[in-house]
Amino acid sequence: MAGQPMVTDGGLETDLIYHHGVDLPEFAAFPLLETDSGRELLRRYYGPYVDIARRAGAGVQLETPTWRASRDWGERLGYTAADLRRVNHRAVAVLQKLRDRAGLDPFLVSGNLGPRGDGYVAGDEIDPDDAATYHAAQVDAFAEAGADLVTALTLTGTGEAIGIVRAARSAGLPVAVSFTVERDGRLPDGTPLSTAVTTVDAEAAPDYFMVNCAHPEHIAPALTTGGWLSRIVGLRANASTLSHAELDAATELDEGDPVDLNRAHDKLRSQLPRLTLVGGCCGTDARHVDALWNPDR
Asked: For Zn(2+), which residues are the binding ones (predicted)?
């Protein structure tokens, strides 16, 4: 990721729910991997992001549809540990096949995992060792399947982030940690983003950090001065300016405006000297990510 521009995808779950009419219990996309029609839908979702990267002269990093494919969430959907290992393997294979056909280099397949708890609400403080044990099964499945790296999205606290990095290191995989922030630029547990980054770096440094699932206007207050800013390589912003609580209560999709999102995003670039990986999160789709990479189209 040393200076290489990299496109990543948008808000998979919200795109599938609101634009494709797909029911995703527990906000989980991974059950789609179980059927031919589900895998074909996922391929249609990912394809435009490869095209965006090609137009932009950039590489691409795609996240597996496995944000909820860990033990606690899987059990809610009737999945055993063996079932989850199978679907995490299959998720990597789907993107590897897409890479084989795309003819685009670099093309990274990232094993995506989410928090054990709610991605919008901070729960109890998490012990790093407990987090490492919990996430190890999913991380190991990604390693077995040949994923290029692991990306943890929408983390709300530092303990879980440290544990995920430890699990990834044990599995021999590069790892990225992505925190989410509230309107004030702080993590849902109140930790300043700067503190979160430096705390995790001191205990178990990931390969890089990201911020996701927040509008650029919410991320901006977090970007104070300091060398820690160079550790943030990726942004996956929300289209909406609503808070997490407002988004959680919403019954309709607030997809914002791709042009406005790009303008707000551009204001952050000068503060993030190593920003190279750019995509979207909730409410975004290929239109938004295209606007971020090809604004003159």
From this structure: 213, 281-282
